[in-house]
Specification:
alpha/beta; six-stranded parallel sheet; 413 residues
């Protein structure tokens, strides 16, 4: 019996960033999951809660039947008014308990205000998965999937909060029917954090994928040898500062070089534009900002020559255990990648002959770029490796394999 079929009913609980009432296609896995599941199931309920960096708080519910959006509504704050008031309080914290409580309550409210039960519940991150476990105990859900997009043993500086985070992760790992980890390094991180009997849990590697329009490369002769690209959010642990400083070294030897920076909010972009100006690099760096259309973003990437993945080696960074979307997009465009030792995917693509590994220092990272610019034979070899490693990296393939692995695991229970 298949995990899902045309009679299946799905509940997907996740989060997204919202700006002016519009969902932004970062995090949350909304577009990939909907594009994969809607053609394959009878009905799907999406609970999408605004991330705390959004300009709204109230969760959005979308109900799909036979691939069509039947209804879309906002969960009124009337149902969780006291929690809503706490959510509105100013805070600089990266994670807030009030938002987590909102998420948990929202799942229960939506589940019990919609008719019927669900064959599969997919909860992105532990609070949603915990709510799914409760729904299963109450008979509203048959199968619960814990979908983990990031993990780190030392995720939070606050020891009490971090202990709670680890406890929730372990509880969901133990009580959910299946766990989808975007990186195999996550389970290693759990073991590092003291997880006992790690082999008994039904953990499936479900890496991030790409849409078919994102997987295409140009012949090397049609790429601009003077263009480097950094794609992704502009956070310190992602290393945009390292990319800019290393580019400054490269520019002294190759004065026609350009660095394309794709991604980041306006606020974050201002920080790195100021850095570029201080280093007198502003005329050679193009800040594209966040490009919402994945196809358009991929077109810019594939015209470039080398993809930069300058992750910083901060001891407590969760990048040591996560996936790396920028690397997937670079290799999908056939670009050799210069990566630091941090991301597990970076280490993998280097082992597959698709990139060069450096440390997270300006000297080492710039040397990696310079090597590719000066050695055309090596460049061609790594470009072929990039194309090979990314050819099947579609969301369709990723999720189909996840369901196949779930079916195989179920047969052994």
């Amino acid at each position: 019996m298949e995990i899902i079929d045309k009679t299946s009913s799905i509940f997907f609980a996740t989060f997204s960033r919202y700006e002016k009432g519009k969902r932004q296609p970062t995090n949350g896995m909304v577009d990939p999951v909907l594009s994969f599941l809607l053609p394959k199931v009878r009905s799907l309920v999406l609970l999408d809660t605004p991330h705390l960096v959004s300009d709204s708080i109230e969760p959005i519910i979308e109900v799909y039947n036979d691939q069509r959006l039947s209804s879309r509504f906002i969960l009124s704050k009337f149902w969780y008014f006291l929690i809503y008031l706490f959510c509105t309080r100013p805070s600089t914290s990266e994670t807030r308990i009030s938002y987590k409580v909102r998420d948990f309550i929202s799942v229960l409210l939506v589940a019990f205000t919609q008719k019927g039960s669900y064959d599969v519940f997919i909860g992105l991150e532990s609070v949603f998965a915990l709510a799914g476990i409760v729904l299963k105990k109450l008979g509203k859900v048959k199968t619960v999937v814990y979908y983990v997009s990031d993990y780190a043993p030392n995720r939070y500086k606050n020891k009490a909060f971090n202990a709670l985070y680890l406890l929730l992760d372990r509880f969901c790992l133990r009580h959910c029917d299946y766990t989808w980890d975007v990186s195999p390094a996550m389970q290693k991180g759990r073991i590092q954090a003291g997880l006992p009997n790690a082999g008994i849990y039904r953990v499936i590697h479900v890496p991030n994928g790409l849409f078919p329009s994102q997987i295409a490369s140009l012949p090397i002769a049609k790429r601009d040898k003077n263009d480097l690209v950094y794609m992704g959010i502009l956070q310190s642990d992602m290393g945009p500062d390292l990319a800019i400083k290393a580019f400054g070294v490269v520019l002294k030897i190759y004065p026609k070089m350009k660095l394309h920076i794709i991604g980041g909010s306006q606020k974050d972009s201002r920080i790195y534009k100021a850095m570029a100006k201080r280093l007198r690099l502003e005329k050679s760096i193009l800040f594209h900002g966040f490009i919402q259309d994945n196809t358009e973003m991929a077109k810019i990437v594939r015209r470039c020559y080398i993809g930069l993945a300058p992750y910083r080696a901060f001891p407590d960074s969760w990048r040591w255990f996560g996936d790396a979307g920028k690397i997937r997009q670079y290799t999908a465009a056939g670009l050799p990648v210069v990566t630091t030792q941090v991301p597990p995917l970076g280490r993998f693509i280097v082992s597959q002959g698709a990139g060069i590994m450096t440390t997270d220092t300006v000297k080492s990272f710039s040397n990696g770029i310079l090597l590719l610019l000066s050695d055309f034979a090596l460049y061609k070899k790594l470009s072929r490796g990039a194309q090979k490693v990314s050819k099947d990296n579609t969301w369709e393939h990723v999720y189909s394999k996840a369901l196949s692995d779930m079916k195989a695991m179920r047969s052994t229970i």
